[in-house]
Amino acid sequence: MKNLIFRLVSLSSRSDISTACRTSHHGRFYLHVWASGLSYRHCHQSTSQLPPLIAEQPLHKPVMLNEVLHCLDIQPGQVVLDMTFGGGGHTKEILNTYSDVTVLALDRDPVAFGLAQQLAKQYNGRLQPLLGRFSELILQQEVKPGSVDVVLLDAGCSSMQMDQAQRGFSLSRDGPLDMRMDGDRYPDTPRAADVVNALDQKSLASILLAYGEERHARKISSAVVEARSICPITRTQQLASVVAGSFPSAALYARKDKLERPSHVATKTFQALRIFVNDEMNELHAGLRAAQTLLRPGGRLCVLTFHSLEDRLVKRFLSGGDMATLDQRHPGQRLRRGAGEREGEGEEEEGEEVMGGNRTKTTSHWSPLQRGVTTPGKKELAENPRGRSAKLRAALRC
Fold it and tell me: C or N terminus of the chain, fewer CB within 10 Å?
């Protein structure tokens, strides 16, 4: 597996993205974005005016709830860190199932944080909401190293974010092309519209290929550049239409998801932009390192991932892979050894790392609680199809 991670550096609200390059630093790939005078800000709608939070609103259905609770194996009096509160489904179930545990609920999304604050009123101090990214958790100093017994990390985008059209995550609901998980916490953070309207064709293609594993990245990025020359792309369904327009009509839903249902051709494009805008791969790595620091020896970590890029990173981290090793091949290539390698084929054995074609034994801070991954059963997939791509990995902190 290749340790290929992009990062979008800060973009001034008065700036434009005019060129991009690759460089390595401390074992990571960064897509550096330089600025020079942007005027798309007027096209965006603020996410600050979101629907009011109601404590009684239905929480999202948590993925693999029974499997997660089994892996966490929570004991009386323990401290649980839910690193991705989201809609609060896992946290609420933990609090209702275990009457004397404390849950620290982290989320980078101010809307989720507000929901956690409302929910906390029902649990008499047993739920402590935290606002921040994974990379900010240690710096907050609200959670001491070695003080946590159990960590749950549910990666990716929450159902709550996907269901709110004005957040700009969903291609099936028209809204401003935003995709920022932090909302307006960091006003200078580029929106997805900034990316698609300002990056050059080559850089856009690299993002789509690296983060969406989109084999038609060049064709799609060319269509985006052509469309934006006529009118800036500022809406989700506008972008979806541009992507769809680069394919024959018969191909629009020719792709299938893991349940063999038709999947829109823009799905991977939306995934790639979301991951890039929110720096999700670097944040996931930071979250795993934070869990390693905060968990006591013998503490448990359970990680839910929803696409292969996340799962490969988690597998490598838990098996003791050298996360600082950078494969210098082109960022458009798949995050695997060898072109065309499929899921489950030719993967490294746990506890081994492939460098320059040789297997090198590594030391891990983790002991696996299960062999391989756990995936949703048929019954859950029928009831909660959004969990179709979920994979659960669990390990003990050594």
Answer: C
Q: Which two tokens stand for residue 309?
A: 């890029």
Element (H, E) at 262: strand 262-263
CA distance 327 to 343: 19
The tens digit of pLDDT for each residue in 36-89 reads 222 223 333 333 334 444 344 445 678 999 999 999 999 999 999 999 999 999
Strand-pairing partners, residue 131, are 107
Chain centroid to Cα 100, Å, comes to 31
CATH superfamily of 170-277: Putative methyltransferase TM0872, insert domain (1.10.150.170)
Amino acid found at 206 = S
Residue type, 78: Q
- Reply yes or no on whether the pLDDT at 94 is more than 60: yes
* Predicted pLDDT at 324: 64
28 within 8 A of 7, measured Cβ to Cβ: yes
* Total-model pTM: 0.79
CB count in 10 Å sphere of residue 54: 9
Q: How far apart are CA 353 and CA 225, in angstroms?
A: 39
- Residue ranges of domains in the chain: 170-277
